[in-house]
């Protein structure tokens, strides 16, 4: 049977659009609406992932013209390996999240109508799939807007909360500034590529065929990068991200952090490697530097957060940075025609895109389960949840180990590949780059170590120790659907970590398409269990054997020690003999991050105040101590506040024209007409 | 299929597990001598371990499975690390499983879970130890990888066995990059294995503890496993240093004589390294925790200089 992947993907999009109608029909019966819309979303996501997987496996390219669009510019869709890969990224996670939503969204029953959530959820997914499949600038931008606006409505779903509305507004502003930049970039590519004749230049095929003058190509690239970076949350354009992602319902946060950011990565790769092909090395250098900056600052800011979802959102900034490091290195290598190394770096970046989608989705789903069970996002008021929510805790832990780049899970594979790419940078011909690029590897190492600290904090404070919050007893574990969604994400994270060679073999079509080289099995040749990116003598890693080794060592030691049956005696906590231990004496998240806050303090805007309140008359004995800490993102005060101030002062200056007297307005019109008559005859 | 490599593999892991307590005892002995005290003998760590294994396990009421699982994981990663690094021979079947980056990451996973176990009971000491350990680790890791990358750039590979054989087959040169990398490596190894001036393995003062604070609640065989893994970690860092800087003697041919020679060379080198550790430990005092940024910053600077000198001079 000959299945056309593009048709399957088309069916997936049609199904998602059908949900919009269905959800409106079933408005009366909310339970049915949830069941229908999220089951169909899951099916559609599965179809899209299958279509993408098949397309990458075959390495096929297919296009279709839709009966929509402008007269001269019909909408076209194209499924090539790059698009197929991102279809898999988006499709896999949205499959898991849709299953999870079947349980999660029930939490809103009786509180508010979920129709809006179901409608915009489906539109959001459809928008992401269309962005990836679009093959002309107009369709791309339409899909981009569908995605942005649908996610805006999802962010403000809980619209009675002020911070949701604020976050939504901020998100909308940044999304549109970015969209304008992308529009301008496409305009440059289309207009200068074809000489401003007709609309034909707006199709991606025409952009691929044409070559731009170098200056204009740079302008197009910079605009596109700005636009996509705003969506991806690259520092300093990230400020909306930690506001908007936590404000949305958790299933949507999982999708926004896990896959919506990846559409921006897709855009960058599409523009840099496909539409504008001959990138000079410094384009890659820009991406590399901003990627490293985002990675390090993102994880440091994540460490300072006590809101679980905000922490995860900042950590997405970090991971987007790591992905961009791979992409940037690939561009640098490619500009010097080192295509094999470019393929290695690009594979590292894309592999991280895939694994980040899965583990970040998993972590957000776990945070959602905690929020669902306790109604609390602030981890300083959580704790000890491993006893009450064992499933969620174990699955969250899988995500935490993955994201901390520890073997044998998936985060480590992409990090290992990126390190290998860094280590091959001495083959670059430029001496300065030889010197400077390996420094990036140190920053990447710092990032991954800080990420481990960050997730020890996130997991330790939330799930370990004692319950810190109000003495409420009704904390329950995630229900079946939520558990199943998270379990699938955890299993795929593990699979990506244990069988990387198989995945990279499959991904070869993507690098083959973009840089004309592949790094799969033929190069290394140690077999399917070993990852050998360049040569077996150079480096090899087998996630499978590490996993198997741990799997064997641990039970072996356990069994050896339990030959004599001996029960463990449970006793009260020792704590060096201290007796009056209360849950409030535990290390809090703020305390955990304190050493790093002090060491990297110059990067944050920290306001710390300790106010002892003394007993009346006895100043030496405080009755209580007030402590307040505020850690602010420095980017606000360095970038955005000056911009806002300039805008306001300009507006005030312009505002002087507006006096409210009709006479002066008439004078303005008169002067304008005279000026126009004089200068534009 | 030849059984020889698998025999070697088993021998290595065995040698690691058996030599680690002896090496720890040796360091302790030298330290006692240097401070004019009577020594408890070379076998004291072995006796300690035996005592701990025989003891009953007492576990806090609210300890979760993470607390129980961690000792086994920590011990397992140490064994696995012993299987992938060339200690006696470079002819190891597992050597291809993991290169030097994975080797370092194996310690990271042990540390991750130890830190979690420290927070599991919910005492202030445990959290304090975890927080400090993760802070130090995140500062040490970039320097560690820079030092390792300098070696890898010099030998053109990240595979440990290949590093050893490339250094063995190369000429005996004084390479400035290796000298800097060695300096950096020593500083980081002190930090990673929790020795003075970063952490004091013999401390009994809770507030200055780092590693010990995390494992305060452990007892019985759990504590024994963690202690043993800690000793193995100390030896493993020595073996990593030997493999990267002084690999002469590690067997590359398949005969028993080479192996015996390798073992003799190893014991000699370990004795020397022990003396070096004791010199550092008796010569220095433990640093305040916020002075560590300077210490680790110096290590990072050394590693960076090593890398720069590789590009400029070699």
Radius of gyration of chain A: 27 Å
Can you list the strand order of the major beta sheet of chain A?
1-2
Query: Count of helical segments of chain A?
Result: 25
Query: How would you sum up the global shape of chain A?
Result: globular
- Percent of residues in beta strands of chain A: 5-15%
* Oligomer designation: heterodimer
- N- to C-terminal distance of chain A: 69 Å
* Uncertain stretches of chain A: none
The SS-based structural class of chain B is mainly alpha
What percentage of the residues of chain B does DSSP assign to strands (E)? Answer: under 5%
Q: Using CB atoms under 8 Å apart, which protein chain pair has the greatest interface?
A: A-B, 83 and 85 residues
Assign a percent range to the helix content of chain A: 55-70%
Outline:
The complex is a heterodimer of chains A (681) and B (314). Chain A has 681 residues and is mainly α.
Report on this structure.
By secondary structure, chain A is mainly alpha-helical. Among the domains of chain A are: 364-563, no CATH class; 636-679. Chain A contains 25 helices and 5 strands. Chain A has a two-stranded antiparallel ribbon. A two-stranded antiparallel sheet of chain A has the order 4-5. In chain A, helix 4 packs antiparallel against helix 5 (137-155) and helix 6 (162-194) packs antiparallel against helix 8. The radius of gyration of chain A is 27 Å and the shape is globular. With 314 residues, chain B is mostly helical. The N and C termini of chain B lie far apart (41 Å). Chain B has one domain. The mean pLDDT of chain B is 90. Chain B has helices at residues 4-34, 44-54, 65-84, 100-120, 124-155, 160-169, 176-192, 211-214, 220-245, 256-283, 292-313, and one strand spanning 58-60. The interface between A and B is large, with 83 and 85 residues.
């Amino acid at each position: 049977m000959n299945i056309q992947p593009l048709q399957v993907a088309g069916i997936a999009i049609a199904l998602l659009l059908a949900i919009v109608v269905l959800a409106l029909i079933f408005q009366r019966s909310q339970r049915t609406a949830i069941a229908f819309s999220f089951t169909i979303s899951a099916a559609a996501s599965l179809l899209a992932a299958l279509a993408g997987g098949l397309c990458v496996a075959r390495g096929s390219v297919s296009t279709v013209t839709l009966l929509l669009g402008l007269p001269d510019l019909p909408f076209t869709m194209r499924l090539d390996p790059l698009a197929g890969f991102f279809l898999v990224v988006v499709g896999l996670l949205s499959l898991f999240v849709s299953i999870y939503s079947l349980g999660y969204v029930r939490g809103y029953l009786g509180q508010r109508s979920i129709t809006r959530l179901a409608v915009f959820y489906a539109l959001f997914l459809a928008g992401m799939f269309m962005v990836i499949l679009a093959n002309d600038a107009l369709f791309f931008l339409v899909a981009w807007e569908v995605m942005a606006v649908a996610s805006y409505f999802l962010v403000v779903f809980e619209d009675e909360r002020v911070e949701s509305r604020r976050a939504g507004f901020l998100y909308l502003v940044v999304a549109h500034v970015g969209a304008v930049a992308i529009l301008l970039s496409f305009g440059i590519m289309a207009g200068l590529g074809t000489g401003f004749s007709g609309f034909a230049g707006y199709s991606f095929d025409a952009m691929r065929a044409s070559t731009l003058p170098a200056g204009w190509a740079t302008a197009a690239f910079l605009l596109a990068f700005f636009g996509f970076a705003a969506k991806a949350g690259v520092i300093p354009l990230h400020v909306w991200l930690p506001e908007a992602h936590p404000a949305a319902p958790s299933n949507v946060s999982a999708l926004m952090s896990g896959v919506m950011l990846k559409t921006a990565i897709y855009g960058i790769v599409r523009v840099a490697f496909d539409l504008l092909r001959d990138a000079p090395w410094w384009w890659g250098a820009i991406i590399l530097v901003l990627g490293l900056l985002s990675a390090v600052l993102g994880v440091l800011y994540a460490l300072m957060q006590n809101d679980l979802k905000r922490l995860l959102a900042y950590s997405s900034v970090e991971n987007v940075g790591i992905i961009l490091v791979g992409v940037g290195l690939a561009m640098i290598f490619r500009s010097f025609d080192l295509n094999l190394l470019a393929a290695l770096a690009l594979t590292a970046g894309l592999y991280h895109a895939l694994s980040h989608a899965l583990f970040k989705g998993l972590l957000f789903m776990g945070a959602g389960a905690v929020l669902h069970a306790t109604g609390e996002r602030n981890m300083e008021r959580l704790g000890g949840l491993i006893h009450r929510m064992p499933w969620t805790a174990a699955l969250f832990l899988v995500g935490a180990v993955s994201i901390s780049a520890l073997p044998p899970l998936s985060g480590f594979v992409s990090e290992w590949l990126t390190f290998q790419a860094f280590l091959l940078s001495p083959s670059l011909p430029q001496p300065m780059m030889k010197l400077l690029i390996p420094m990036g590897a140190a920053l990447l190492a710092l990032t991954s170590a800080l990420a481990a600290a960050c997730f020890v904090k996130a997991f330790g404070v939330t799930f370990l120790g004692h319950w810190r919050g109000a003495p409420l007893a009704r904390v329950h574990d995630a229900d079946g659907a939520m558990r199943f969604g998270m379990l699938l994400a955890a299993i795929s994270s593990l699979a990506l970590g244990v069988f990387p060679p198989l995945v990279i073999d499959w991904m070869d079509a993507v690098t083959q398409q973009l840089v004309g080289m592949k790094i799969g099995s033929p190069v290394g040749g140690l077999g399917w269990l070993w990852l050998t990116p360049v040569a077996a003598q150079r480096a090899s890693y087998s996630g499978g054997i590490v996993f198997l080794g741990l799997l064997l060592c641990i039970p072996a030691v356990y069994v050896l020690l339990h030959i004599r049956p001996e029960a463990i005696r449970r006793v009260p906590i020792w704590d060096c003999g201290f007796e009056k231990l209360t849950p409030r004496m535990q290390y809090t998240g703020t305390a955990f991050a304190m050493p790093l806050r002090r060491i990297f303090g110059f990067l944050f805007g920290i306001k710390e105040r300790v106010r002892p309140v003394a007993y009346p008359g006895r100043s030496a004995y405080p009755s209580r101590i007030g402590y307040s800490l505020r850690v602010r993102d420095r980017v606000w005060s360095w970038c955005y506040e000056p911009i806002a101030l300039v805008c306001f002062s300009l507006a005030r200056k312009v505002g002087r024209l507006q006096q409210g007297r009709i006479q002066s307005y008439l004078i303005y019109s008169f002067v304008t007409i005279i000026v126009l008559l004089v200068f534009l005859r | 299929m030849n059984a020889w490599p698998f025999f070697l593999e088993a021998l290595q892991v065995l040698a690691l597990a058996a030599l680690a307590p002896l090496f720890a005892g040796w360091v302790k002995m030298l330290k006692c001598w240097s401070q004019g005290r009577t020594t408890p003998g070379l076998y004291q760590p072995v006796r300690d371990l035996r005592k701990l294994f025989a003891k009953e396990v007492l576990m806090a009421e609210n300890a979760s499975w993470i607390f129980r699982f961690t000792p086994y994981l920590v011990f397992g990663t140490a064994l696995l690390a012993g299987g992938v690094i060339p200690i006696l021979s470079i002819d190891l079947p597992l050597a291809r499983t993991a290169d030097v980056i994975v080797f370092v990451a194996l310690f990271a996973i042990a540390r991750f879970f130890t830190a979690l176990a420290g927070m599991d009971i919910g005492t202030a000491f445990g959290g304090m130890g975890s927080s400090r350990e993760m802070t130090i680790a995140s500062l040490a890791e970039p320097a560690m990888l820079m030092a390792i990358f300098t070696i890898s750039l010099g030998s053109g590979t990240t595979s440990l066995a290949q590093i050893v054989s490339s250094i063995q087959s190369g000429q005996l040169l004084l390479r400035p990059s290796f000298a800097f990398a060695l300096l950096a490596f020593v500083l980081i190894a002190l930090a990673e294995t929790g020795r003075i001036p970063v952490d004091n393995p013999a401390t009994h003062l809770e507030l200055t503890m780092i590693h010990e604070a995390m494992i305060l609640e452990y007892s019985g065989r759990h504590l024994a496993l963690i202690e043993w893994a800690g000793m193995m970690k100390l030896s493993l860092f020595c073996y990593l240093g030997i493999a990267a800087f002084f690999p002469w003697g590690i067997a590359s041919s398949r005969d028993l004589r080479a192996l015996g020679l390798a073992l003799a060379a190893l014991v000699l080198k370990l004795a020397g390294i022990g003396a070096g550790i004791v010199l550092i430990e008796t010569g220095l005092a433990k640093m305040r925790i916020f002075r560590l940024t300077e210490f680790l910053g110096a290590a990072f600077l050394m590693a960076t200089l090593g890398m720069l000198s590789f590009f400029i001079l070699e």
